[in-house]
Amino acid sequence: MRIGAHVDPAEPLAEAAARGADLIQFFLTDPQDWVDPKDRPDAEAIRAAEIDVYVHAPYRINVASSNNKIRIPSRKLLFNHAAGAAKVGAKGIIVHGGHVENGDLAKGFDNWRKTFAYAADNGGFATPVLIENTAGGDNACARRFDNLARLWDAIGEYEVGFCLDTCHAFAGGEDLLDIVDRLKAITGRIDLIHANNSRDTFDSGRDRHDNMTSGEIDPELIVAVIRAAGAPALVETPGGVEGQGADITYLRERLA
């Protein structure tokens, strides 16, 4: 079982080595900016490294939005970040499911469909897109699994992956006990797990990650989710090298 961490993008390979990580995830730009990624001078070294790489798309991307000034730039930004992710040999680019501002979720799901149609008309995404479940929002496309099922009905004709965040699921009100079976019944796959504990209680709607043994989720339940999914996992937890290194060790020992 491959275990890793979300790391600072400045020197991702050094960050991986410091944590003993098998895989890494990082941003290509400031996640709060609307900018396309630049070519990285270390791209060849990252591609050649014996480590799996994932890229997280900017937080600002919301292709489900009912606002044209958000939705259309979001599509283009996701397309361009997927191209940047391909240059570092990423196995996938993770993007949040997004939300609609006016409560019309059906329109949001259709906007997701149009995003994949846009990509198909422009040569396809250069890196597989993994949609991630989110923790909060009443009009979120991927918080509640009944809405996630509607989203997959809209985009199922396209090749799309799924990233399960354990903190987001717990804070979003989804029981982790049988979550793998329920998710696979909807998406047919789990490509990556964001193995995070939660600083907040069940169904809080708050996206605040905690370390494995410090949060509101029984850490053994997170281990069970990873084992049942059989997917690579990475932590997006606080504490830098020390905190994430301890979390990686905790997961690795229990998944051995």
Could you walk me through the main structural features you see in this protein, from its secondary elements to its overall organization?
- The mean pLDDT is 97.
- The longest helix has 20 residues, at 68-87.
- The chain has helices at 12-19, 43-48, 68-87, 105-121, 145-155, 166-171, 179-187, 219-229, 240-255; strands spanning 3-6, 23-26, 52-56, 92-96, 129-132, 161-165, 192-194, 197-198, 209-210, 233-235.
- By secondary structure, the chain is an alpha/beta fold.
- The protein has 9 helices and 10 strands.
- 41% of the residues lie in helices and 14% in strands.
- The relative contact order is 0.14.
- The chain has one domain (3-255): TIM Barrel (Alpha-Beta Barrel).
- Helix 4 runs parallel beside helix 5 and helix 5 packs parallel to helix 7 (179-187).
- An 8-stranded parallel β-barrel has the order 1-2-3-4-5-6-7-10. Strands 8-9 form a two-stranded antiparallel sheet.
- Helix 3 (68-87) links the parallel strand 3 and strand 4 (92-96).
**Count of helix runs:** 9
Give the CATH H-level superfamily. Answer: Divalent-metal-dependent TIM barrel enzymes
- The geometry reads as globular
- End-to-end Cα distance: 8 Å
Portion in helices: 40-55%
Number of distinct beta strands: 10
CATH C-level category: Alpha Beta
* Overall pLDDT metric: 97
- In sequence order, what are the helices and strands, one letter per element? EHEHEHEHEHEHHEEEHEH
The tally of structural domains comes to 1
Cα-atom radius of gyration = 17 Å
Low-confidence stretches: none
Strand content: 5-15%
Strand order of the largest sheet: 1-2-3-4-5-6-7-10
Return the CATH architecture: Alpha-Beta Barrel
Give the CATH topology.
TIM Barrel
Mind summarizing the main beta sheet? Answer: 8 strands, parallel, barrel
**Strand-pairing-aware structural class:** alpha/beta
